[in-house]
Amino acid sequence: MEVEPDIDVDDDGTSSQRSLPQKQAQPTPNIVFDTDPAFFSPDEKLKVGVIREEDGAQVFLCMYCRARCESALALKMHVRVYHMPVLVYDNGLGTVETRYRMGIKLQNTTCTEFSTTEKPFACLFCESSYKLQSSLQSHFREHHSPHKPFQCLECKEGFRRPIELSRHRLYRCPVRKNTSFSSSKKER
Questions:
Q1: Residue 76 dihedral angles phi and psi, to the nearest 5°
Q2: What b-and-e string marks burial along 158-177, b requiring 16 or more CB atoms within 10 Å of the CB?
């Protein structure tokens, strides 16, 4: 598995690298995220654009409309002002207290060279974006939701989907493995 650097750009334009696993060694542009603690929780981020080298200078391009900005801060402000991100909540889980912030709906998005279709619903926890809010909701519930309604009766571990619980009970449950091993040993 090859590792490509991913760039987190601070408001002043400085960058820090961290290694993330990639499927293939592809030349990918450096992505700029908005992680401002005034707007986002520590595990949330919004993909706002990319950094490109053009004529020996860094250019910051908007992910949603190809606008060019002179710094990462200007790019973040462009996305906030022009695309007007609105928080989207997963309100299918119950009351206001159990709603979770699952993504952002961006206004004024158009088809760009970075995305082949208009996908205004962006996940706050990964780089996924979707055309429909229901698709974002399904993605959030399957991958990021802290709500785990399906619980193993033996070890009390929670799961998001019933199939995950079934697999756990068949293959991974430590309590079940220990009891089935000891009971099969007694039968002999």
A1: -65, -40
A2: ebbeeebbeebbeeebeebe
Residue 150: exposure state from Cβ atoms within 10 A (0-12, 13-18, ≥19): middle
Question: How many CA atoms does the CB half-sphere of 136 hold within 13 Å?
Answer: 27
The residues that bridge with 129 in the sheet, in sequence order, are: 122
pLDDT per residue as tens digits for the range 40-96: 888 888 888 888 888 888 899 988 888 899 899 999 999 999 998 888 887 665 566
Distance CA 122, CA 50 (A): 16
Q: How far apart are CA 85 and CA 105, in angstroms?
A: 6
Token output for 69 = 């900005």
Half-sphere exposure of 52 (CA within 13 A, CB side): 14
Query: Which has the closest alpha carbon to 83: 69, 101, 63, 60?
Result: 63
Are the C-beta atoms of residues 137 and 124 closer than 8 Å to each other?
no
Strand 150-151, strand 129-130: pairing: unpaired
Rg (CA), the chain: 22
Model confidence, pTM: 0.61
- Phi, psi at residue 17, to the nearest 5°? -100, 145
Could you tell me the two tokens for 88? 């989207």
Task: Compute the distance between CA of residue 13 and CA of residue 150 in angstroms, rounded to an integer.
Answer: 44
Which tens digit of pLDDT belongs to each residue from 4-40?
444 455 555 555 544 444 444 444 568 888 988 888 8
